[in-house]
Amino acid sequence: MISNSKKEIENLYFTSNEDYVYKCQMEVYGNDISGILIVKKISETKHRVVITSDFGNKMIDFEISESDFKLNYVLEDLNKKMVINFLKNDFRELLRQKYSVVESFENEKSNIFRSELDKKNYYLFFSKENSMLTQIVYTRNNKEKINFSFEAKKPTFAEMIHLEHKDFKIDIKLFQITETE
């Protein structure tokens, strides 16, 4: 157990006003989708997320915050309620910035902070080596639901992000294309 001095922690990835551009590889129930993912912070609480094909054709475009979701465009093939809900929920979790700390622990490599929100638990792992966020594990009813892994050299930009669902066949990998400051 480490001291509970922190009452709130932050996921700083996606907090810069720069565009975040990633090569995106998604596997959704055996279907492979690849393209370019662009995330832009458009206000303190809202992001715009656009996924295009490798050739630049728009596949989906939405604006998201903790409380709002506005679908600007979706390709007909992707316009399925289940797909939209997964993207909405996954990106809402990925882009969440502030977490109130309920308790904290440590292991060999990480300082771990547990946050609770609407009967959901989030475990945020910060590297002891460089203090950067390396993982968020989202659980519900004590079962792991989604595992977000990050590889980063800077606190505001992850070069690699991996979203792995534990109870659905959904796997999303994002690889840096642009270098941000």
List the helices and strands and how they pair.
Elements: E1 8-10, E2 20-28, E3 31-41, E4 47-52, E5 58-64, E6 69-74, H1 81-95, E7 98-100, E8 103-106, E9 110-117, E10 120-127, E11 133-140, E12 143-154, E13 157-165, E14 170-176
Antiparallel strand pairs: 1-7, 2-3, 2-14, 3-4, 4-5, 5-6, 8-9, 9-10, 10-11, 11-12, 12-13, 13-14
* Rg from Cα: 16 Å
The side-by-side strand order for the widest beta sheet comes to 6-5-4-3-2-14-13-12-11-10-9-8
End-to-end separation in angstroms reads 35 Å
User: Care to count the β-strands?
Assistant: 14
Percent of residues in helices comes to: under 10%
Shape: globular
The helix/strand series, from N terminus to C terminus, equals EEEEEEHEEEEEEEE
Q: List low-confidence stretches.
A: none
Total number of helices: 1
State the secondary-structure class.
mainly beta
Instruction: Provide mean pLDDT, rounded.
Output: 90
Which percent range describes the beta-strand content?
Answer: over 45%
Major sheet description: 12 strands, antiparallel
Detailed description of the structure:
- With 181 residues, the chain is mainly beta.
- The chain is 8% helix and 56% strand.
- The protein contains 1 helix and 14 strands.
- The strands form 2 sheets. Strands 6-5-4-3-2-14-13-12-11-10-9-8 form a 12-stranded antiparallel sheet, covered by helices on one side. A two-stranded antiparallel sheet has the order 1-7.
- A hairpin with a 4-residue loop joins strand 13 and strand 14.
- The longest helix has 15 residues, at 81-95.
- The chain is globular.
